[in-house]
C-alpha cells in the first residue's frame, strides 16, 4: 500500500519458496492486480537439498501508485530472467552525486567514516547485483583527520542503488563489537549521519554499549512510501514459518496498543524495543516462544503499525551486549576458531592447550548496561525480518545470536568446538536449538557460516538422539522427557518443568519442519511426553500442563517408567482419588469442568506452552498424537490468542 502518489516505486524483499517450486535457472515475472506486468530481479541466496530455491531476494519497480492504493504482486515463474540490462554500479551512483558518511565526537575527538570514499576505492563487497538493483556492503573504520582509527568503533554501510532512479537506500550500522580488542567499554559520544551532505540522523550524548551495535535506514533521493505484506499462507506452506492458526484474528486493540507503545527511549539505539529489558525475568510474556508475539501478530494481520514495531525491535537486537566480531574474519566469532572462548567459564578453563594462550575475552570496564541478555529467555528477533526483507543486517543479527548461544557456555560443557547446548536449562536448550536450526536453514549457501551452523545443529541432534533415542539409551527414561542439564531443578531434584520440556519439543519440531532429518527421530521420541499427558490411562489430562512433574522418588533414584508413577508422585492423593475431569476434581481445583490446570485461559499459560509441542508431535508422526491433539482441542477453557498468538500453532 502506498501512503502518497508515487512513480517508479522500487521494492526489494525476501521471499521463501517451497521445495521444487523454483529453480535457480528459472525467472520470475510480476503481475500487478491492476494488470501491469513488471520484471522481477531474483537474487538466490539459499537453496533446498534438491537444488531448488529456498530463499531469494527479489526486486521490482512498480510504475506508479496513487495515495492509499493497494496492489497485489503475483509472482509467476518464467523460463528465464525477466529483468534485463546492466547492473547499477558504484561508479554510476558516485557520478550522480551520491555521498554518505558518519561522524562521531568522542571526548572532543572527531572520528568519521565515508561510504562514498570506500566505494570509490573499491573497498566493498556485493550483496545484490542485477539489472534493477545492486547493493554493496562497505565496512569503514571511524578515523580522525590524521587517519588514526578508533580501536573499537566501526561504521558499516549497506548501499542499495536502483537503476535509473537516482535514489539509493543507505543502511548505516555503528558497531562497538570487536571480540578481542583490549579495554572494551561503553562509549558515550555525539553522532551525525550525513546523506547527500544533509544531516539525516543526529544524537547527542549517546551511550553505546560494549559488544553492541545500532542501525539507521536512510535514503539518498526520495524514499518510497510503501508497506509490503507477504502472503502468510504461502510462507506457512513453504514451512519457512510455523503453521500459525489461520482462524486467529489479531485484536484491533492489541494493534493499537503496540502502535501507542512504540515510542520513546526504548525505540532508540541501545533500547530493547518491545522485548523485556531484563531477559532473565520469569513468567509468561510476549517475547517468549518460537517467535515473539509481535512477529506472529504481524504475520497474521499484515498491520504496518505492528510491522514497524516488530522489525524495529529486530533492529534493536543489536543493542544487547552479545555481539562479538572476529577481526580476522570480520564475521561473528566462531568456536571453530576459538574453541576455548566463553562468557561463563573460569579463567583456567579458557586456556587453549594447543596454543598455550587464553581465549578469554578482554576484561570490560565501564560496562554496565540497562538491558541484560539471557539465552534461556531469548526472543527470536531476526529470523522473520531477514526472511521477509533480505537485509544483511538482520542476517548478521541472527548469526550473532546463534553464535552467542554456543560460545557462552563453559568450553568443556559444550564439548569445545562441537557447540553442544546440553548443559543449559531446558528452555535455554530449546531456544538455542531453534536459533541454530533457523540460522542453518536461512544463511546463504555461499556464506562460510552456513556449514558451521549446520554442523553445530547436527552435533546437537546427534547427542540428543544418542542420549535418548538410540537403543543404548533405554535407561534415561522411557517417557520422552529431557533429564540433562538443569532439567531436574524442581522438587529436590526429582522433578522437571513440562512447559520447558514442551519448549524443547517445539524447537525440535521446528528443526524437523525446516528439513533437518536428524530431528525426525528425536521429535517422534519427544512427542511421547505431551501425548501421554493427554491420553495415558494412568495420568489425568487435566494435569497435563502442571507446573512441575516428578520423574523419580529421590535425586538418587531411577526414573519412573510409567505415567501412572509420575501422576501418583506429583499430584496429592486427595486429588488422584477423584474421577479425572469430573465435577469433583474441578471443584477441588477451582476450575470449570473440562478445564486444564495451569492458567488455561491465558495465551501464555502452561496449556498454551503445550500446544506447539502437541501440534509438532502430530506432524512428526508420534503414535496417537492426532488423538491427543483432538482431546486437547476439546478442553472447555481455551486462550484467546487475538492479543498474543505466539503459541497458536496447529498441525499441518
What does this structure look like?
The mean pLDDT is 96. This protein has 18 helices and 20 strands. It has a five-stranded antiparallel sheet with strand order 1-4-3-2-5. It has five domains: 1-84, no CATH class; 90-220, no CATH class; 229-280 and 294-320, no CATH class; 322-361 and 393-476, no CATH class; 479-640, no CATH class. 29% of the residues lie in helices and 21% in strands. It is an alpha+beta fold. It is globular, with a radius of gyration of 26 Å. Helix 13 (528-535) crosses helix 18. Residues 6-63 form the PcRGLX/YetA-like N-terminal RIFT barrel domain. InterPro entries: PcRGLX_1st. It comes from Noviherbaspirillum galbum. This is PcRGLX/YetA-like N-terminal RIFT barrel domain-containing protein.
End-to-end separation: 31 Å
- Secondary-structure content class: alpha+beta
- Total strands: 20
Largest sheet: 5 strands, antiparallel
Low-confidence stretches: none
Strand % is 15-25%
In total, the number of domains comes to 5
Topology, pairings included?
Blueprint: E1 6-16, E2 27-32, E3 37-47, E4 53-65, E5 73-78, H1 90-95, E6 100-106, E7 109-114, H2 115-121, E8 125-129, E9 133-143, E10 149-162, E11 168-176, E12 187-195, E13 198-208, E14 212-220, H3 232-238, H4 252-261, H5 293-301, H6 304-315, E15 325-326, E16 331-332, E17 351-352, E18 357-358, H7 383-389, H8 392-407, H9 426-442, H10 448-469, E19 495-496, H11 498-513, H12 518-526, H13 528-535, E20 549-550, H14 563-570, H15 573-576, H16 583-589, H17 606-619, H18 625-633
Antiparallel strand pairs: 1-4, 2-3, 2-5, 3-4, 6-7, 6-12, 8-9, 9-10, 10-11, 11-14, 12-13, 15-16, 17-18, 19-20
Helix pairs in contact: 4-6, 5-6, 7-8, 8-9, 9-10, 9-11, 10-12, 11-12, 11-17, 13-18, 17-18
Pfam families: PcRGLX_1st (PF19501)
Domain PcRGLX/YetA-like N-terminal RIFT barrel: 6-63
Protein name: PcRGLX/YetA-like N-terminal RIFT barrel domain-containing protein
Amino acid at each position: 500500500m502506498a501512503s502518497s502518489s508515487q512513480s517508479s516505486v522500487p521494492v526489494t524483499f525476501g521471499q521463501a519458496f517451497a521445495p521444487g517450486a523454483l529453480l535457480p535457472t528459472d525467472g520470475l515475472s510480476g503481475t500487478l492486480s491492476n494488470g501491469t506486468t513488471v520484471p522481477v530481479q531474483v537474487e538466490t541466496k539459499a537453496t533446498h537439498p534438491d537444488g531448488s530455491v529456498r530463499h531469494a531476494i527479489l526486486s521490482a519497480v512498480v510504475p506508479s501508485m496513487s495515495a492509499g492504493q493497494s496492489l497485489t504482486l503475483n509472482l509467476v515463474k518464467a523460463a528465464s530472467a525477466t529483468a534485463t540490462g546492466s547492473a547499477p554500479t558504484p561508479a554510476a551512483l558516485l557520478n550522480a552525486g551520491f555521498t554518505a558518511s558518519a561522524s562521531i565526537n568522542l571526548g572532543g575527538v572527531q572520528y568519521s567514516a565515508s561510504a562514498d570514499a570506500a566505494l570509490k576505492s573499491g573497498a566493498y563487497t556485493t550483496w545484490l547485483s542485477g539489472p534493477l538493483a545492486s547493493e554493496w556492503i562497505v565496512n569503514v573504520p571511524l578515523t580522525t583527520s590524521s587517519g588514526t582509527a578508533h580501536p573499537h568503533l566501526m561504521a558499516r554501510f549497506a548501499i542499495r542503488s536502483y537503476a535509473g532512479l537516482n535514489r539509493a537506500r543507505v543502511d548505516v550500522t555503528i558497531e562497538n563489537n570487536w571480540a578481542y580488542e583490549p579495554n572494551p567499554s561503553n562509549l558515550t559520544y555525539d553522532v551525525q549521519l550525513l546523506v547527500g551532505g544533509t544531516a539525516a540522523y543526529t544524537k547527542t550524548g549517546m551511550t553505546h554499549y560494549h559488544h553492541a551495535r545500532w542501525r539507521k535506514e536512510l535514503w539518498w533521493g526520495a524514499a518510497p512510501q510503501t508497506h509490503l505484506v507477504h502472503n502468510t499462507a504461502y510462507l506457512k506452506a513453504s514451512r519457512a514459518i510455523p503453521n500459525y492458526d489461520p482462524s486467529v484474528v489479531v485484536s484491533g486493540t492489541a494493534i493499537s496498543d503496540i502502535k501507542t507503545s512504540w515510542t520513546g527511549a526504548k525505540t532508540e539505539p541501545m533500547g530493547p524495543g518491545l522485548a523485556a529489558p531484563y531477559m532473565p525475568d520469569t513468567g509468561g510474556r510476549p517475547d517468549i516462544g518460537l517467535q515473539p508475539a509481535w512477529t506472529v501478530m504481524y504475520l497474521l494481520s499484515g498491520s504496518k503499525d505492528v510491522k514497524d514495531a516488530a522489525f524495529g525491535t529486530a533492529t534493536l537486537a543489536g543493542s544487547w551486549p552479545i555481539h562479538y566480531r572476529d577481526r580476522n574474519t570480520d564475521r561473528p566469532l566462531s568456536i571453530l576458531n576459538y574453541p576455548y572462548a566463553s562468557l561463563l567459564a573460569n579463567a583456567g578453563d579458557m586456556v587453549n592447550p594447543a596454543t598455550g594462550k587464553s581465549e578469554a575475552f578482554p576484561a570490560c570496564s565501564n560496562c554496565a548496561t540497562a538491558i541484560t541478555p539471557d539465552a534461556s529467555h531469548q526472543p527470536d528477533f531476526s529470523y522473520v525480518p531477514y526472511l521477509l526483507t533480505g537485509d544483511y543486517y538482520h542476517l548478521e543479527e541472527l548469526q550473532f545470536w546463534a553464535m552467542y548461544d554456543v560460545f557462552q557456555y563453559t568450553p568443556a560443557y559444550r564439548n569445545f568446538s562441537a557447540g553442544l547446548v546440553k548443559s543449559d536449562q531446558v528452555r535455554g536448550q530449546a531456544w538455542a536449538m531453534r536459533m541454530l536450526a533457523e540460522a542453518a536453514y536461512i544463511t546463504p549457501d555461499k556464506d562460510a557460516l552456513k556449514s558451521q551452523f549446520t554442523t553445530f545443529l547436527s552435533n546437537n541432534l546427534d547427542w540428543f538422539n544418542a542420549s535418548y533415542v538410540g537403543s543404548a539409551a533405554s535407561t534415561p527414561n522411557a517417557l520422552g522427557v529431557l533429564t540433562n542439564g538443569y532439567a531436574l531443578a524442581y522438587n529436590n531434584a526429582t522433578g522437571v518443568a513440562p512447559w520447558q520440556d514442551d519448549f524443547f519439543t517445539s524447537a525440535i519440531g521446528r528443526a524437523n519442519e525446516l528439513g533437518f532429518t536428524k530431528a525426525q527421530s528425536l521429535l517422534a521420541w519427544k512427542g511421547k511426553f505431551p501425548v501421554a499427558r493427554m491420553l495415558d490411562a494412568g495420568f489425568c489430562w487435566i494435569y497435563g500442563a502442571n507446573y512441575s512433574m516428578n520423574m523419580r522418588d529421590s535425586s538418587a533414584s531411577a526414573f519412573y517408567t510409567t505415567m501412572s508413577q509420575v501422576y501418583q508422585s506429583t499430584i496429592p492423593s486427595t486429588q488422584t482419588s477423584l474421577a479425572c475431569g469430573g465435577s469433583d476434581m474441578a471443584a477441588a481445583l477451582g476450575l470449570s469442568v473440562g478445564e486444564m490446570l495451569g492458567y488455561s485461559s491465558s495465551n501464555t499459560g502452561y496449556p498454551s506452552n503445550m500446544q506447539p509441542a502437541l501440534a509438532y508431535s502430530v506432524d512428526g508422526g508420534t503414535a496417537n498424537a492426532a488423538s491427543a491433539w483432538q482431546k486437547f482441542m476439546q478442553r472447555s477453557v481455551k486462550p484467546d490468542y487475538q492479543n498474543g498468538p505466539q503459541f497458536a500453532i496447529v498441525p499441518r
